[in-house]
Design goal:
With 253 residues, this protein is of the alpha/beta class. It has one domain (7-238): Spore Coat Polysaccharide Biosynthesis Protein SpsA, Chain A. The protein contains ten helices and seven strands. Helix 1 (20-26) links the parallel strand 1 (7-13) and strand 2 (33-38). 42% of the residues are buried.
Length: 253
């Protein structure tokens, strides 16, 4: 519990047997549930997560790989079924600082936000910790995403360290969320169409000495540009004047 709110932490994981046990153990005690989504890993990710014996742990297993967005959606669905008030997302590779979780929950507990996301660029260490290629890519994508999502004050769009209310989740069509790399872009645009209040909070960027990006230029150009165009088109169509008003009230840019 956090300020009277029940909390679930969703951990999407694919081939993370080296880090998953440590990641699960590091989840703060304020989390009532820990939902590890094993996205059809080829290793012992799901088995090791289940063996962690952490209070409230459960493992959702995919028969086939659905991508990180698809894994998060499965975690969200389970969180909704459990009836928790807030669902947070932490990566299975240990690149998110558990100490930042209360900061993500704070704006929701105070009633200011429906969705809170980490912004590594608000931590001064990002300029020396984040690899140069990732820095450049994030700056470009985050700048473009201001237009796509409609949230002009939100940055670091690719940061997956997030918290969302049950009410906001229920307002989204999770079946239509883009399932693979680029899902945060699609999600932010969809949040804007339902009038969700989104807030950035500083989080610590973590990159170990053995970090190596699996992202390639082809991955960024396609399907990211297609996702952006789809998200922008969907948002503008949904928010056209003759459409119904957002479910959560007016969005705060």
């Amino acid at each position: 519990m956090f300020s009277g709110l029940s909390v679930a932490v969703v951990i999407p994981a694919f081939n993370e047997e080296k880090a998953i046990s440590r990641t699960v153990r590091a989840v703060p005690g304020l989390a009532d549930r820990v939902i590890v989504v094993d996205d059809a890993s080829h290793d012992r990710t799901g088995t090791l997560a289940a063996r962690s014996r952490r209070r409230g742990i459960e493992v959702v297993r995919h028969a086939s790989n659905r991508g990180v967005g698809g894994a998060i959606v499965s975690g969200y669905r389970r969180a909704l079924a459990l009836g928790v008030d807030v669902a947070c997302v932490m990566a299975g590779d240990g690149q998110m600082d558990p100490a930042d979780l209360p900061a993500l929950l704070g704006p929701i507990a105070s009633g200011r936000a429906d969705y809170v996301k980490g912004n590594r660029f608000r931590d001064p260490s990002v300029w020396r910790v984040m690899p140069p290629s990732r820095l450049a890519g994030n700056i470009v994508l985050s700048t473009l995403n201001k237009l796509v999502s409609g949230y002009w004050r939100v940055f670091d769009s690719q940061c997956g360290y997030t918290a969302i209310t049950r009410h906001a989740l229920a307002a989204l069509d999770l079946d239509r969320l883009f399932p693979r790399y680029g899902y945060p872009i699609d999600l932010l645009a969809r949040l804007h169409t339902v009038g969700a209040r989104v807030e950035d909070v500083p989080v610590r960027p973590i990159y170990g000495p053995s970090w190596k990006s699996g992202i390639r230029l082809g991955t960024v150009v396609h399907p990211i540009l297609w996702v952006m165009l789809r998200a922008l088109g969907g948002r503008l169509t949904s928010e056209w004047p003759w459409r119904s008003r957002p479910l959560l009230g007016p969005a705060k840019p």
